[in-house]
Write a structure and sequence with these properties.
The structure holds two protein chains of two kinds. Chain A starts with 15 loop residues before the first helix and ends in an 8-residue tail after the last strand. Chain A contains 16 helices and 20 strands. Chain A is an alpha+beta fold. In chain A, a hairpin with a 3-residue loop joins strand 8 (about 210-215) and strand 9. Chain B is mainly alpha-helical. Chain B has helices at about 1-10, 10-25, 30-35, 90-125, 130-145, 145-160, 175-200, 205-210, 215-250, 265-270, 280-305, and strands at about 50, 55-60, 160-165, 165-170. The longest helix of chain B has about 35 residues, at about 90-125. The radius of gyration of chain B is 23 Å and the shape is elongated. Chain B starts with a helix and ends in a 22-residue tail after the last helix. The chains are: A alpha+beta, B mainly alpha. The interface of A and B includes residues 391 and 398 of A.
Amino acid sequence: MKKLGVVLAAIVLTTGAALGLTACGSSSGGKEGGTLEATYVSFPDSLDPAISYTAEGWTAMYNTYLPLLTYKHASGTEGSEVVPALAKDLPKISNGGKTYTLFLRPGLKYSDGQPVKASDFAASVERLFEVNSGGSPLYTGIVGAEKFAETRKGGISGIETDDETGEIRIDLVQPRATFSNELGMLFVAVLPADTPSKDQTASPPPATGPYVITKSQPGRGWSYDRNPFWEKANAKAMPDLPGGSMDKIEITVVGNDTTQVSDVERGKYDWMQNPPGPDEYTRVKEEFEGTQFRVEETISTYFFWMNTERPPFDDVKVRQAVNYAVDGEAMERIYAGQLAASQQIIPPGVPGYEKFELYPHNLEKAKQLLVEADPADREITVWTLDEPENREAAEYYDDVLRQIGFETTLKVINAETYFTLIGNERTPDLDTGWANWFLDYPNPNALFQPLLSGESIQATGNTNLARMADPALDAKIDELSQQDLSPEVEAEYADLDREYMELAPLAPYGNRATSTFVSSEIDLDEVVFNPTFGQDLTSFQFK
Amino acid sequence: MAAGRFLRNRLALAFLGVFVLIVLFVLAAPLWAEHVAETGPNETHTLEKLAIDGEQRDVVTPEGRPIGPVWFDAGGKFFLGADSRLGRDEMVRLMYGGRTSLLIGIASAAITTALAVLLALLAGYYRGWVDALIARTLDVIWSLPALLLGIALGVSLAVGGLKLGPIELSGGSLWVPVLIITVVSIPYVARPLRGEVLALTRKEFIEAAVAQGAGPLRVMLREILPNLSSTIIVFFTLTIANNLLLEAGLSFLGAGVQPPNSSWGTMISVGEELLKTAPLLAIVPGAMIALTVLALNIVGDGLRDALNPRAKIRLEAHAGRVEPEGAAV
């Protein structure tokens, strides 16, 4: 569950002004040029587009490595729209939804001057498997991809390319309604075919986007310059993509978020990528909201999972009792206003979202349900990780479970190993615990498939932490995954959300918000927050 | 005579009083929790309100700010305020956390001292390969940074606990940090004690005992051990202080006492997240640690001076090199 807890694919629901931002083309009235000095609280998991599976990495590379398709450089729901990037147009889908045909735009060049070729796309997808990318399962539906993943030989038969015409043809084993979304992810950003099949964080490959990473010091920071072939070639070939205002961008890792806040306040840095820490969040929000600070709501679901395969959570009444016991209002306070309470799987902003609340907080009802269920095993282990708010959420959950009659043991695990540990079936006492899910793209399938489909129960790297396997609902997930989103399909997803919550394998408690905090020199109104990629570096400009 | 010397040391006596007060303070935790605060150390009150001067105040504001100290304005409830966004009573957690910290400090110091004495007697008396084995093992543990070793053990044991023959500890057990601290502390006590035993075994009275037919056990227990007693007593008090600090460090870094249980170290860790807006949350447990360690060190020094005015036993911080100064009696 590599993306859990870190991927901030998000949606802005805040201001009307923000909704109007698209930032296409060049800047809109601010100063051109200059150096954006920015700070991250930690170095991204990778600066290799095939490997990074975190919001930090995706924000860093959104404007550097371009896939065939991308997500519109816009805030809010508009930013969820898949648009062409290196490809001329959106794919032509034929053969009953199993064949995708695209053409490269002519005249594209990498930042080192070599031409971008159609065959580079095939090599980039193969490289994805060669580097054991966490994103590779998204592409195993390509004909021959599973075989290539095992043998690493002979290429992927389902990808045919023609360097002369720029044609790229992709054959899928079965229709996949979300495949265009997946073609817009950084995992399949096109890199030169000779890019080594190992993490390139320390020596970033040449770029196709408006910025190129010129220096990378893992753990410390990295720098961008303008791509020398952007204006010469790629901007002309892709006039619909923004080129950015800044001449240079310098990112420095500052491990203390309190220091970051004071550095942004006094203008040492122009932007901090992560939100202020809990100690500073409220003050910064009160003092700077609207001028230098903006809340950005994410398409995420935060929840407690309950292992439906073993007592006591194999009893639906016990799981429902837990849902009644968890109080969303308390969770909002624990997250200091950075979480909106919710009791359903689909978050707001994702197609299929229809608000409902099956389990309004009622501790007495929870206790009564537990008395009715009378589970033989009341000694349970509660798992969480050591990030402050999420650990406190689990400590609250632990207290609530004790209040309704369980005997609990809380296990707090290092954040870097948490999901590996709870995703391994050999880990003992996997009863219940904390987790979250940030959607890779705004499609409800990106929630139900990994979190609740029986197919997703794995011995290692398990994402179905509740180990939920309901044949009828699994079939519905599978059926819906092959259909394009439409009002009817969205209504089906809304029903699915309710059906799962009636079985209560999870106790969802909210949707997380993040924030944009910039110095007084930056025009906050121009900063775009894309639902998938976070802050768009091409949208930053000085006032 | 030694007692008389100790009683004449007013500073040591005063700090012994301070330590006794601290012990009484933490022992009173259940009384305070039940009759004054009316809450347990791990009970959350995130959404509750507190009546103060006829006004209802949030224990945790909607913005996630915990209430500060209210002293006796709410009848002793939330005397020191709430600990975090979970709205737990800071005073109750401070008292229970102190029990945990002192329990770990004293228990680990007792086990450390007992094992160190045993190893020192065996190594110093038998010498040869027994001494070489024990001394080199202690050297290996000694060579590892205590805090890093503690973190490594703490993180691994926190997940799966420990199963060692009949000994079975769950990951959240308080005996896990006791065990970890014991393991990393033993060399700091055993090495100087071994030096003392080596020196003692060369004394005439030991040779005389052996010449009279005393067996190894009798020599170790009847002849050597009594001569080590003053050093052991001093080491014990100083080890409590050191282990208290080590526990605080490990818990601060998440490898000691596991949530939701509190210790002074975990409280500093939680308080550090709110250092700017609620500095007392970190300062108060920090001050308790400082005061306890200071008291134990001064009492330890007083005992050393009283029991053996010529000795210069000193146990320095785990992080640095630790050497007894003229440990021999």
